[in-house]
Amino acid sequence: MQFYERDEKALQGEKDALDKRDSAFGVNADMLYLLPGTTQVRLLPPYSDKGVFFKEISKHRIKNGKRWETYACPLEMASLPCALCELGAELTATLDEAKIEFVSENLRPRTAFLYNVICHGGPQNRKNETPEFGKVYCLESGLMVHKQILQLDQDPVDGWADITTVNNGVNLTIKRTGQGLGTEYSVNPHGSGRTDIFEQLVERGIDPAGLVLFDLDNVYTLPTEEKLELVTKMVKASVPKVQPVQAMPIPVAASLAATPLPAATSLPAAAPAAPIPTAMPLAQPIAAPVPVAAVAAAVGGAPAEEEVPAPPAIPAPPTE
Ligand SMILES: [Zn+2]
Known about the structure:
By secondary structure, the protein is of the alpha+beta class. It has a domain at about 30-235: Replication Fork Single-Stranded DNA Binding Protein (Alpha-Beta Complex), CATH 3.90.198.10. It is built from eight helices and eight strands. It has helices at about 10-25, 75-80, 85-95, 95-105, 145-155, 195-205, 225-235, 290-300, and strands spanning about 30-35, 35-45, 55-65, 65-70, 110-120, 135-140, 170-175, 185-195. Helix 3 runs antiparallel to helix 4. The N and C termini lie far apart (about 80 Å). Zinc ion (ZN) binds near residues 60, 73, 76, 84 and 109.
């Protein structure tokens, strides 16, 4: 066997190049996300001659194994074709419930907002790092936080307005509570009122002249078409398949159509929750195979009213 010495430097270089290539599809800034707890930030002034201090973005979050990957949506952000959005539209058009749910969880682009901030303090992230004061971060928030920020920034009635000015702006306390769909954010001006952020930096030995704002228009790079095609292929592989016949929800007789019963095999022996007229025979497990045409119709989103050939009648269980 002929082999050669390892060149650790060359190997490291290969790995760095790979990491860099990956991150090119993500974000090009030091990001700050709002974690559970309290984060205190100072929003910095506009980053471009457009005179706006934030940037709205739209991104897909795609699960690749255990890792979430983020892709800016070319359709929403630049009116360019987006393979992920196309797949989403395709699946939605099937009217299949499982597919529609899949789209909403895995494919639909989400709106977010970016800001340049100085962070006065915040919770530890998963890597046990806390935000560093004196460094510019790109804060990413959702709509709930953004609305409250605009409210503070542009409503003179509440006495604040223009909260991003360097020498007379307002530090914000953003609190995240709850979990999942119950997650809430509250944005409040910090008790110290209007302050000079440059002065605060200098007091802590940081020269504001050395700080650079991120160009928020370019924090998210649009993925290449090839990359999006690859990702879409991967997502496509995890789209829920059409369920096997036995597990298909079969609409029962018309009067029960409003509450389609679960499929025959999973029907519990106990009475179903829906009230059943005592005279009405209850649908029973269908022993005979369901005609393929009927299944296809149901998969295609047939209306609930559609009748399925009546199964053999059996006495209804006692109702309460
Ligand atoms: Zn898209």
